[in-house]
Amino acid sequence: MISVVMPTLNAEDHLARTLSALVPGVVEGMIKEVVIVDGGSDDATLEIADSTGCQIVKTDAERGLQLWQGCRATRGDWILIMHSNSQLGDGWMDQVQAHIKNFPLQAGYFHLRFDDPSIMVGLWAEMLALRARWLAMPSGDHGLLLSRALYDTVGGYKDQAAFEDVALSMALGRARLRPIGASLTTSAERFHARGWMLRLIGKSFSFLAYLLGIPPKPPVKKPS
């Protein structure tokens, strides 16, 4: 029924934990397949994905391209897009089943949490929650569940360097987006490399620039 799509790049530290939270869905027959779209990992990411029975798609390390390729490879009637460092919380299966049954024409996003109790992390999580609620633009960290039919209707992900999640949310529109009660806990590790304040300011300015029509810069490609 559900195809899970997960972009990866050197995700060995958290991929196994993320996949383990999906096991009950596989056992119950809810999850048909897990598609790992790898952007060129040089750690054990692909070994973990292969050993757990995931389908592997290899592409460049550009999030929009990864998600476009991954969703194109799916065979399920529903698509669940989530990051490789995010774990679905307790009760997610019941919440997902309820969404599929009661809201087939809408896309759903989860309640975002970060695995860090600090004030700055909480501030950023609240800002993303407000963005999802008031602007109808959930971030990629929220995850997204939608039917294949709806995905195709709005044109799916765009092959762009960043903010592919915003582009898809804008295509869906407020009327076709709703929150799902289950939580999705995402790692805060990536923010610590540059510091939370710099990361928050940088992401905020980039988001505003994108809304004003300034295209995001393409990622730096690794030398071949």
Automatic annotation (TrEMBL):
Which Pfam families does UniProt cross-reference here? Answer: Glycos_transf_2 (PF00535)
Q: What is this protein called?
A: Glycosyl transferase family 2
Domain named Glycosyltransferase 2-like is located at 3-102
Q: Does the keyword Ligase apply?
A: no
Where is this protein found? Answer: Cell membrane
> What are the UniProt keywords, alphabetically?
Cell membrane, Glycosyltransferase, Membrane, Transferase
According to the UniProt entry, its GO molecular function terms are:
glycosyltransferase activity
Chief subcellular location: membrane
GO annotation, cellular component aspect: plasma membrane
Quote the PANTHER family the UniProt record gives: GLYCOSYLTRANSFERASE, GLYCOSYLTRANSFERASE 2-LIKE DOMAIN-CONTAINING PROTEIN
**Stored InterPro entries:** Glyco_trans_2-like (IPR001173), Nucleotide-diphossugar_trans (IPR029044)
User: Which species does this protein come from?
Assistant: Asticcacaulis benevestitus DSM 16100 = ATCC BAA-896
